[in-house]
Amino acid sequence: MLFNSLGFMVFIVVVLALYYSKLFNWTNKKRMLLVSSYIFYGLWNPPLIILLWISTMVDWTAGKKLAVETNAKKRKYWLLLSLCINLGFLAFFKYGNFLLENFNAVLQIFGTSYEAPAMDIILPMGISFYTFQTMSYTIDLYHKKNKPAKTFLDFALYVTFFPQLVAGPIVRSKELISQFYDEKKASLNQFLWGCFLLTVGLFLKVVMADSLLASTSDDVFGSDKVLNILDAWSGTLAFSGQIFFDFAGYSTCAIGIALMLGILLPDNFRYPYAAIGFSDLWKRWHISLSSWLKDYLYIPLGGNRHGVTRMYAALMITMLLGGLWHGAAWTYVVWGALHGIFLVVERLLNNRIKIKINNWNGILFALLTYTCVNISWVFFRAKEFATAKNLLQSMFFMNPEGEEILDTWAILKVIIIITVTFLCHWYMRNSSMKAKAENTNPMILGLIWGVLLFFILIAQGSGEQFIYFQF
Amino acid sequence: MNLKQSATMAILLALIGLISWELYWRSNGYYPTIEDNDALWAAQRKRVDTPNPNDVIFIGSSRIHFDIQLDKWNLYTGLSSIMLAQPGSSPLPIFQDLVENTEFNGTIIVGVTPGLFFSTTYPEARPWKWAQSKVDYFYKQTYAQKFNHLLSIPLQEQFVFINESEMDDAINLKSLVNKFKIGNRNDSKDPPFFEFSDYTIERNSRMTIKCATDTAFANTIKKVWSVFMLDTTLPPPDKNSTTKFFLEQAKKFEARGGNLILVRCPSSGILRDGEQMGLPRERFWDSLISVGNFKSYHFEDIYETKNLDCPEWSHLSGPDADLFTEVLANLLIEDKALPNLNTN
What we know:
The complex is a heterodimer of chains A (471) and B (344).
Chain A: H1 6-20, H2 26-42, H3 49-68, H4 72-109, H5 127-142, H6 152-160, H7 173-176, H8 188-222, H9 229-260, H10 278-281, H11 287-298, H12 308-326, H13 330-352, H14 359-381, H15 385-395, H16 408-428, H17 433-438, H18 442-459
Helix pairs in contact in A: 1-2, 2-6, 3-4, 3-5, 3-6, 4-5, 8-9, 8-18, 9-14, 9-15, 9-16, 11-12, 12-13, 13-14, 14-15
Chain B: H1 3-27, H2 38-48, E1 55-59, H3 62-67, H4 70-77, E2 80-83, H5 92-101, E3 107-111, H6 114-117, H7 126-140, H8 143-158, H9 173-178, E4 197-199, E5 205-207, H10 209-213, H11 215-230, H12 239-255, E6 259-264, H13 269-278, H14 282-292, E7 295-298, H15 318-334, H16 339-343
Parallel strand pairs in B: 1-2, 1-3, 3-6, 6-7
Antiparallel strand pairs in B: 4-5
Helix pairs in contact in B: 2-7, 4-15, 5-7, 5-12, 12-14
């Protein structure tokens, strides 16, 4: 079910009505939330709920054993069981065909005529998100950094909690499970702030991403022509805006909906396009994934504890796998590799050149970072390397005879939106929406809220899926 | 932070804005109408899976969609109808789906618009792809999408602002924003294409009164057809492979007791001349009918319909579509071409 759909509006009203009614005690309210979460997921493809159940059962059992088992070997086996099943699902459902394609390509290199037939596999929505979430639970228990969930219901709800089930934020168990222990009820102000966040999230998705930017990005990345520099940059900038508004929109909705239930979810975005450098970017973009990768991949790979070379290798491996996490294609791996290289270069430069960042040079560094981010987006969005190559050549003056496919308005629209977005991110860099709202006259805030609502209503759209659902 | 005050203000503002928006578009001649989208098509396609002996399925392109008025059809034949025709598309992918994936063995009436019927069997070509996309959507439609469709229908029936259309007169934000024009960079030479039909939940399509009565408006649609006719990049018709494909499917369908009827709906003006030149009746329609020995009805062979005039060259106005439906229904009854009727 999509947040930007009529069905979801009915769903959330029913869930909230049941949640705040006096019909249920807290345990039954949690049961109701769990059933609602399965309905939320099952309305997309009911049989795939079984995967969620298996993941839940395996990690619940492994977690329980890890909490009491003292034998180191047996503890390792329980952890391995959890990792194998979760990563096995991911490997089969998400990377099955990708692995097969590469297997066939290798066979061809060796001159074998055999070709393994492609499998007809459905990618379960949000599998990468809930798999990472449940894995963090067992890994933390293995390292004794966490306590097991008190009841199966609390754990199942942690795995399945509908606001963040299909596209995050990827929440750690200690941040969420403990919130299920005591009855939660949003205060009126919390509830209304949740509604405001839901409105902002829908505005970002429906108006900014789908109505204003998607068509330009689709036209440019869908074109099979060699493009003019302006068109190539406009398409790339449009995509940078589209993916931010789409994903930040989803996260904001998720946080808002959870808050309406009295549950707090962590921030997932912090004005990323104002990042100064790539370390800063990854503290601001998809924070829950980057911190997951840091804690469960980069640090176990050695982090910065074993010298510079090993640190750079760990960084590169983390970013390559981070790229692959986004999708089963080599273009995503290149995207991850680029970010790895950017991070390595940044660290190398940081060790040699010391620059004091102020407001004046800061914005220039942020602009430089954003430009590099855009180069990486080309690989993220392009379906094939040939498209990415053509676009990059066009962006860097190598196709002077490139074709013009966008009209002036489409280019101007992108330039205006992206400039305003970049300046907004810069302005909000060290602040938060809540802090700004607290200092705003309630009537002015109401005016802004009303305008956002109005634009959502007249935009509607045909319920475009969130980009990150495919990951 | 006094969010109660802000929320009240927001709801009031959004409501005032929305009411003004709705009234503004109504004052500009817009009225609530059903969107002919994938979900609406899928809802009709679903009916094929629960067979009713009285069902007659219509497939084809926009002509049969406009020219058969379902209420009149039901009135004159007493049979129910399932409208699966898809504008701008070849009927072949939908026919293939009905033959291969259902057990339907009643009557299928195929509207033959020569330029689309004989266009292609290449899966990536637009006339095929558009029709196939409907079939694919039907099989992939989620429960959430069905639920959304169910909820959206009463809203579409009541409000003008609920509008997902991508035509040039659409009033959703995306369409309105994309309508702005500055300068002449990559200036599109394509004429604007406006909505000229009203739809019902049953997918009945009826030409708007504006298109039927306002010559200037009808001329805007004629311009669109002219662009298609003069488009030298379009591939030539592929008579052999389309005919072969249709015959194979027709054979399978008739072998299980299915009843197939082919109908050529009216066209007029330059479009008809162009069709006669590019896809002459003798070489295309007559040839198809003779090799398949199908029951067939060509508007030129029927006294009451041979001189019907299409306001925009390709589709009949509402009243003329009523007449066409009545004449066709009576002919089919007279010819005992509808076995459902005979057994009833």
